[in-house]
Structures
1.
Amino acid sequence: MATVGVLCARSRIEEKSLTTALAEAGIVSALFPPADEPLPVNALTASVLGRPFPVPDIVVDRHHDRRIARAVLTSCRALEVPALCAGIAATGDRLDVASALAAHGLPRPTTLLCTSEDAALQAVKAMGLPATVLPLGLESPGIALLDIDAAEAVFEHRAVLGGTDESLELIQAGAPTAENLVTAVVVDGTVEALMLATEMSLSTEVLRLAEEAARALRADLVGIQVALGAGGPLVWDVQAVPEFRNAMAIAGSTVAEAISRAVARRLDVPAWSAASLRNTRDAIAVSA
């Protein structure tokens, strides 16, 4: 029987909905790696403990600590275990993401890499305010800079308390409000759900841009944050582990169901029938 390892520290609402969807599809899942088991780094060390290591058939990346996720995904590749993940965004940082998106010619805000407090101040003065500090680690949120005094305080704080790690950052032109940001959850190349701060009508251009960004990142499961403005939509940021508990489904099924179908395709197991899919949606609607 096919097994799926859900890469996460603990099972939250998203992970519970995913394991339920997998169970409905007849696929066994478990948290991965087991908390009390050392993880082999290649096939030669897989049996060093004297017993078989519980290697899943596929891993779904849902781990919020990206350092752990990168390490585990690297081991999975060595063990030839495929992963449903955010591609470049799963194992890289914001510079890797920005570089990949730019290489594919996707619309992006002006972005500069800064390695010191002085460089960051020069970047802000060159591109103007507002601007946003984006730490290289995708797990860290951006910091909006609305005036030069605030910018100087932020850069000094990061440099003094964090040292070199905190001085490495991207400065991105603009600071869109929550009302002007849309996060599209892309599963296997298709936008399955949206997270919006307010009700708004979106053009197909936004959906197409999110799907193009996912392809550029070679991502199977990713959140693409799109900024809306007068000049058209821009790829603003990326979520390696997108939240989807409050996402608005647009493709007729939940994100968890879409992930389950993507897993089933890779494992070459029978997908849900239309009837079982309808029954599952009805059950979710009733329970809600």
2.
Amino acid sequence: MDEMTDETWSFIKSAIVIFVALLIIIWSYMSFASPYLHVWQQSKLGEAELARADSNRQIATCEALAKKESAKALADAEVIRAEGVAKANKIIGESLTGNEGYLRYLWIQGLQTSQMQIVYVPTEANLPILESSRLRSSTSN
């Protein structure tokens, strides 16, 4: 082997010292700083999870409020529609009161436009006259 020069030997010593220093730094970090860093990291994870849960709660609250407002608006619309139907029924009922002739006219018009339909006419006792005459005529043949 060639003899090492002082400069090469000095370089190797420096590299060994730097390597040993790095090993000591890594060992001290693993022994002393790592537990504290782990505690800090867990604390930050907990804070992030708490912030996420708070955000999710706010989102759920906003969605529930939107559903509540929507339900109220739909209920108001249904009330307004029902009031309109009630007014229309009242107007129709009032216009038909005392107009027996007009109602009879509409009934006759309806009979003329219906084809091959059976009409049950109520009697004085509000019992319909059944198709007994038609049945008798078909059985007597």
3.
Amino acid sequence: MKAIAVSGNKRIPGVNVPTLLELGINVTAANWRGVFGAPGITEPQREKLVDLIAKMNVSAEWKKTLETRKWTDVFMSERPFERQIAKDIADTEAVLKDLGLA
């Protein structure tokens, strides 16, 4: 199998494969991971969870995982993450509609 493109907005370091954008296809996509609090979470519980994840994000273990897997660190907390999820959903819906799949 030969990789023909990557879906991120920039190339993967050390991998000689263009992005879809470079090939003239105006599409980007990335996997995201999230931690979500249960309904009714208290403000102190929310703050503690946000602090824990922020600390994990700067840990040596996480930095090593990013390097090993050639992942781009795009850590976002709360509102910026919510906005990014909403944008990704809207962008995906637009692509699916263009393809006649939605």
